[in-house]
Amino acid sequence: MDWNSFWASVGQFFADRGGDLLAILGILVGAAIIRWILHFVVKRVVTQIVTGIKKTQRVDDTQSLQASPLAAVRVVQRTRTIGSVLNNVITWTIIVIALIMVLDTLGVSITALVASAGVIAAGLAFGAQNIVKDVLNGLFMVIEDQLGVGDVVDVGPATGVVEAVGIRITQVRDVNGTLWFVRNGEILRVGNMSQGWARVIIDLAVPYETDVEEVEAKLLKTAGELASSPKWRSTVLEKPEIWGLESISAEALVIRLVIKTRTTAKDEVARELRMRIKKSLDDMGVQLPALNSIVLSGYEGAASVRGSKPPRTKPVSVVENKAPRRAPRTPRKPEAE
Description:
Blueprint: H1 3-57, H2 70-105, H3 110-143, E1 152-154, E2 159-165, E3 169-173, E4 179-183, E5 191-192, E6 198-207, H4 212-228, E7 241-248, E8 252-261, H5 266-284
Antiparallel strand pairs: 1-2, 1-5, 2-3, 3-4, 6-8, 7-8
Helix pairs in contact: 1-2, 4-5
GO cellular component, one term: plasma membrane
Pfam family, one: MS_channel_1st
Region (Disordered): 303-337
């Protein structure tokens, strides 16, 4: 191998295309700088909005917003989600523009490339439709505020806290710490447990011979004390309710107690309420039966949505079909022999 001719050809290449290489390097550096600037602007705007809300509510961290109006929490989560999506859109847009500029600098005809890409795209259309579906579904989820960063959601494949929402992938961290990467196109329904309010439901099984009215009064009193205590007053939205007997069997009676709470405090309120109920039942001397033979039913029923306040319906008139009355039969007298 003639090294002199090799290095001579390398030098000739840089002499001929050195300007193009410097232009390509400038395009890449410029794209990186523009991306950094735009990401910095998005981050700055998101930080200012979140900080402004925290100052308005006079809190130091986002978790403390649970005591503030629910709209403030949604603005924080929605702002962070839109910021995450904007960062993804900016990155991919800059990459596509930089790639087109690099190809133009190398002398590649963009028109011919687009024509060739059209032929290739026809063959890849079936496979690319999943990507398009992911992107469109992700944009609609953000626009419609179906979920946001920090929300506790059930998206089917995974249930947990949303850590990031991209244009194609949503990251969900479950209770075990596993980070799930869920394609937006595969999300057919979103169960958001962080919007609006939540409901603590306690189903208590007591022995059949227990005085139901006495137990219900004790449960309601215990839940009312929790709701009125200074520590839990800001997390409970409405007065506790007794929905009555949910199921009945020879072994036990199941009584349902519910409390409407803020979404961020549902689990804490439920744990505290169970502890207080346990102490109240100990004071009453009520021994709970074994649950291995008791089926708690009614939790998934549609009728439970309205609870103890069912919808009002108009009375339906009932027309009785009265059959003609028959004359009483007279007993036949025995004939004389």
